[in-house]
Amino acid sequence: MAMQKVTANGRKEIRMGVLGCGFMGKCHANAYKKIPYIYPDAGVMPRLLVLCDKNEQIVEREATRYGYEEFCTDWNEMVADERIDVVDNCGPDPVHPDPCIAALENGKHVISEKPLAVSVDDARRMRDAAAASSGMAMCTFNYRFMPAVQMAKELIDAGKIGTIYQIRVNYLQMAGHDPSLGADQCWYAAWPHSGGLQGIGSHAIDQCRFLVGEITSVSALVRTFNADRARPSAGCPEVTSDEGTAALLDFDNGAIGVMESSVVATGRKNFLSWEINGSKGSLRWDLEHPNSLFACLESPDGPKVEGFAEISVTEADHTYVGPWWPHGHNIGWEHCHIIEKFHFLDTVANGKPMNPNNATFEDGYRVAAIIDGMRQSSDSGKRIAINY
Question: Rounded distance, CA 261 to CA 246, Å?
Answer without folding.
Answer: 7
